[in-house]
Amino acid sequence: MVSVVSIPARRNSWDSARIVASANLVGRRFIGPLVVLLLWHLASTLQWVDPRFVPSPLTVLHSLWIWMFGPAGAGPYSGTWFLHAGNSAYRVLIGFLAAAAAGVVIGCLIGWFKVMSDLLDPVIQIVRPIPITAWVPFAVIFFGIRDGSAFFLIALGAFFPIVVNTAAGVAATPKLLVRAARMLGIRSYMLLPRVVIPSAMPSIFTGLRLGIGLAWVLVIVAEMMAVKSGLGFAMWDAYYFLRLDIIIAAMLSVGALGFFSDLIIRFIGRWVLRWSRGL
Amino acid sequence: MNQVVTPAALRQQQSRIVVRGLRKHFIDISRREQIVALDGIDLEIGDDEFLTILGPSGCGKTTLLNIVAGFDQATSGDVRLDGEAILKPGPDRGVVFQEYALFPWLTVEQNIEFGLRERRVAKAQRRTRVRDQIASVGLSGFERRYPQELSGGMRQRVAIARALVNDPKILLLDEPFAALDAQTRTLMQQELLRVWSAARRTAIFITHNIEEAILLGDRIVVMTARPGRIKEIVTVNLPRPRDVTSADFNETRRRIGLMLESEVQATFVATQGNAVD
């Protein structure tokens, strides 16, 4: 054996140059957010804007703290955060899982079987342009002011990016790989699980990431209009009491939860798609 | 010329692949015209023979290979492997593609194991066969790598191992080294000959490179420009390992070069100098 590809071992040693470089990078990346926070703080404390409408970051942080860890029963915004956040997360999880299951299955059928594409694709293309928010009145009447409406809206919204990306990924399966698999004696019905779906995985994960993003958008919409709990409900409730601190705290909470759920999907995706590193 | 004792005559008697009156037409939809890719191919390939098919771009040599592999159907004519008509692809005809066609989500080991696994070969047997095959193409130590992490030459080794591990009756290679740099290519040619002579197997090797065709083939099928026909079949009576700098080698190269030149000209004129294939 002569030709050997040498792949350099990953360096684990932290020399001073690398520490300085990382510190610089982290430093640079914190500058932007810090400037925004500072401007916000100054705008509020120096009364460039009315502090009743724009409470300072410290006020928001304090309110969030009370909302999260304050004594229960001391008020509507004391100790109730986890209940609301849990409700929202639960709805996102159920709606998203339903959308992912349906989207991946139907996407595979559409992408792989011409007949399925002819039958199902027109339906999807007609329904897809209807904004999900336009479904709210229908959902409230059909499912009532209950979790069902939220599940429906979230699942419907997250379904479209997942189904469309899955179908595109499946349809783009390299013909050469299908040929190679058939040459190797694969039974026809194993092509989908063994070749087509693995090959479509990058697209499927793109769809899932878009889907989870939409799920958090829609849980807020649903909770403002179609159910009586969750961060979206708390936000809308706080609006009636002009609790801008709570509104902003809820906004930040949703942002953080959305970020973390995306991080989880990215993490899973990185593991599933470990073969495509640097592709 | 060196007269080497080759069992060519013997091989002819026990042909593995028999091609009779093979024709293949395509319809070019954009131009609304019929293209004749292969026009009456008759060919017999003997047991353990290494046959190279040489021709200008667009002469239908890949089409011929695809029909033997079972990926494409002939318009008319007959292709048989050990007397049985070829209808669909299968592991008795191992194909090595120019673009490797490895499954990027599987490791080297899993790629090679793919065919055995899909045909439900017992796990213990799978393991030993894969291990032996990996060793025979010099991939030991790379079992857990993904194709993405390998060089072109290494990827093609995986592809060859993936085909050979199924113990095919015939190996079909479609310009497998065309994408490799010159040094790797030479090395892979030697490796292929080594593996081929160790495994003793019928092989059809497609190339547009004259030197490669002479270096590897027991016989060389020289094809005409479109429509693809067999212009001449050259038997290479040079001892292996062949020396590309020897006088005999160069004489053969010159002869085949002259045959091909007119065909390449024809292709060039037919396409008005546009790149084809």
Explained architecture:
- The complex is a heterodimer of chains A (279) and B (277).
- With 279 residues, chain A is mostly helical.
- Chain A is globular, with a radius of gyration of 24 Å.
- The longest helix of chain A has 35 residues, at 191-225.
- Chain A has helices at residues 16-45, 57-69, 81-112, 114-127, 136-143, 147-171, 175-183, 191-225, 231-240, 244-272.
- Chain A is built from 10 helices and no strands.
- The two termini of chain A are 27 Å apart.
- Chain B is globular and about 55 Å long.
- Residues 1-5 and 7-12 of chain B have low confidence and may be disordered.
- Chain B has 277 residues and is of the alpha/beta class.
- The longest helix of chain B has 24 residues, at 247-270.
- Chain B has helices at residues 8-13, 61-69, 108-118, 123-136, 152-164, 182-199, 210-216, 247-270; strands at 15-28, 33-46, 50-54, 76-81, 84-85, 93-96, 170-174, 202-207, 219-223, 230-235.
- In chain B, α3 runs parallel beside α5 (152-164) and α7 (210-216) packs across α8 (247-270).
- In chain B, the strands form 2 sheets. Chain B has a 6-stranded mixed beta sheet, with helices on both faces. A 4-stranded antiparallel beta sheet of chain B has the order 2-1-4-5.
- The chains are: A mainly alpha (279), B alpha/beta (277).
- The A-B interface holds A 1-3, 5, 7, 174, 176-177, 179-187, 190, 194-195, 198-199, 201, 273-279 and B 69-71, 88-91, 93-95, 97, 99, 101-106, 114-115, 118-119, 138, 140, 142, 145-151, 153-154, 162-163, 166, 184, 187.
How many β-strand runs of chain B?
10
Which chains make the largest contact? A-B, 30 and 39 residues
Distance between the termini of chain A: 27 Å
Question: Number of helical runs of chain B?
Answer: 8
Helicity level of chain A, as a percent range? Answer: over 70%
Gyration radius of chain A, rounded: 24 Å
Element-level helix/strand string of chain B: HEEEHEEEHHHEHEHEEH
Mean pLDDT of chain A: 91
**Total count of strands of chain A:** 0
Low-confidence stretches of chain B: 1-5, 7-12
- Overall body shape of chain A: globular
> What is the average per-residue confidence, as pLDDT of chain B, rounded to a whole number?
88
Q: List SSEs of chain A in N-to-C order.
A: HHHHHHHHHH
